[in-house]
Structure formats: C-alpha cells, structure tokens
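Apologies for my clumsy wording, but could you write out the amino acids of a protein and the tokens describing how it folds?
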Amino acid sequence: MSARPGRVTEDRAVGFSRPRTLETTFEPAFSDLTNELRRLIFEARLKQKEVTP
C-alpha cells in the first residue's frame, strides 16, 4: 500500500498455507518473501519522506 491516499503498489501471491507454522517462518522462501515485502515498505516510506516538506 502506498501512503496517503492509500493504493496498492504491489500484488504478490503468497503460497504458504494458513495458519502458518513456526517451521514455515524459517523456510528460505518465506524469509525471502518477507524480506522483499519489508524492502518495498521501507522504500515507499523513504519516497514519502522525500516528497513531504
């Protein structure tokens, strides 16, 4: 989601069943996905700070 106004900026398929087990959260594919999503959120926040006076 983007900041104000909120809009979807990425749409990702998540191939992990729910509820997720603790073991699932340690799988490399799960870690890769969460790291990528965190990176996207971080970059969006940086862009927002650049635009906001």
Observations:
- The CA atoms of residues 5 and 48 lie 11 Å apart.
- The chain is about 55% helix and 0% strand.
